[in-house]
Amino acid sequence: MKQLRRIEIRTQRLATQELSGSYHSVFKGQGLSFREVRAYAPGDDPRWIDWNVSARMNEAFVKVFVEEREMTVMLVVDASQSEQFGTRRSSKAQIAAEICALCAFSAIKNNDRVGLVLATEAIERLVPPLKGDKHVLRVVREILGHDPEYTGTNLKLALETLVKVAKRRSVAFVVSDFFATGFERALALAAAKHDVIPVMIVDPRDEELPDVGLAAFEDLETGEEIVVDTSDPAVRDHYKKAMRKLRTDRDRLFKKLALDAVIVKVGESYVNPIRDLFARRARRIRR
Hints:
two-stranded antiparallel ribbon; 23% strand; six-stranded mixed β-sheet
């Protein structure tokens, strides 16, 4: 509860002071809804003249529309055991909870709804989209305190579930280290229906091995163990190239699908990458 309270205080402040206005400007509603008719004024678009009302009143009236602001924000969160890894004070799971809290509080400040798909190799939790601070705290509590039944990762299933449960077009933050495979088609289908934003969480040790001599490594998802001689430059170089290729393949996939991907490094600010995301979108809108 202390951890939850700390996240609530920090992310609410960040959402209010730093991201609220940006969020509103870059995530638009689902369209326009009719509000009323009023007398025509010079400069009004003649396409919006209501000819039926104008004929009855013997003067021109135009339809007035307002943005249908309410949106749904879905958080698709990888809860597999690889997310428990972390070498910079916080685990990936902790960072994922704070990112989701920041996105969720930004959403409810704009009266949007927030839902959750929490997945490992199965769907661990489904939280329907609702509004309100208490609901956001429930979502963050599920991410932060959930004890997964399974250890593996199935992003394909998580994305397919997103498509099934979110009937209307939504903004979907997919938070994972993206070590999974076989989810590419599911991601493409989800991106065709929703505004999908991959948030890749990276620990420094994901990308480079330290030179610590013989070291035992355990796969957190399978339990498999292996002993590696990290003092061998060839071993470290092979690992670095393999992880670089994985990152390049992911970047290429996101670019191919025209997705606004975010990379958050454990131990560094997660606010700056989210702010940069909003800035990129704002520039595109202005153009």
